[in-house]
Batch of 2 targets.
Target 1
Amino acid sequence: MAHKEWVESESQVDLEEPELYKVIMWNDDYTTMDFVVEVLSDIFYKSYEEAVAIMLDIHEKGKGVCGVYTYEIAEMKVHQTIKLARANEFPLRVTMEKE
């Protein structure tokens, strides 16, 4: 049986940090503040205090950042939020943009 030797490579692989995306929730006149806080807790894993602070940004400033994630995770959270909002008959708008 032949003996195999492992040769260590001197080449170094440069790994780039993945691009990050902000998930943004927009204010509307129909979605309740309680629902927004619930979504921020359940989908974005925010504490009650964090969820209320983000909800107030959304209410007072017209939008709020729910979190910053890699593309795939941001996209999944946008879809989960919209699906839950539609199931509860809210027109909640959620988008993502590159950080």
Target 2
Amino acid sequence: MKSFTLDKYAKKSSLRAAEMPEPLVGDDDVLVEVHAAGVNVLDAKIRDGEFKLVLPYRLPLIMGNDVAGVVTRVGPRVQKFRPGDEVYARPDKDRIGTFAEFIAMNQRDVAFKPTALTMAEGASVPLVGLTAWQALVEQADVKPGQKVFIQAGTGGVGTIAIQLAKHLGATVATTCSSTSFDMVKSLGADVVIDYKTQDFETILHDYDVVLHSQDAPALQKSLRVLKPGGTLISISGPPDHVFGGEIGAAWYVRLALRLLSFGTRRKARRLGVRFFFLFMRANGEQLQDITALIDSGVIRPVMDKVFPFAETNAAMAYVESGRAKGKVVVTVKPNLG
């Protein structure tokens, strides 16, 4: 099958177009014919080797972390899905590989695709949707009346997180350029800050939750906009020892992560707030909850550009440029996506 693979870790390198064997289907697996695959910053970070200590992949590795497609075969223990079902998923971190014509995934990681979405739109949702869900619903337990600050409101995570936080009853603040104010307001943002001309730390005070996705200076400022007892959830680091334990990392890796995050955790304790690092995980049940919100019109995906499969490297470069407003997708079967 056609695929795009990583042969060695290297910053700003290109993936290789390669013929790879069709994946084997385990007893609990579904084999999905890929119609479209989302492209994420995570893909570039994996390619650059940023996660090689905590995610020790064997190379060559088929890349890609988002998929929408059609089930073509199921394992003998699979009961929920059958051939012909339209599904979408963020595969488990150990079984990525959506930049290909087929992918096998455990049934627990898969959900039925929202009927309201095309395949390309469906492929844009799983990773960012699950990130927003696990941050705001599972970790922060956002309640009506709370104040939530979501950085980078036009990003893939931001566009979904704004809508989800608003659905949960929160007052939502976000950052973007002035040209995107109308866009983020249409998603539900109440307070919009121009990151080019304004400092969010001077505007936001006593927030209950911050979803952090930017750099270290923004993290330090974000800790200070929280009220005592507030929660900061970071998806951009620093990763901590708790994350190391969750992924079963070696003791020396957990120790390194503890040291890496020590300063941030100490600062959070001094301020009386909570700090969590989130590396989202595959979860078909949560994704099915997101499907219900999409089909009921509560959440809509925001798409920026769709590339043909042959231009997967160009799609990754576009995501890395930081210019995307919403999600970028490649269509593996363009006539059906």
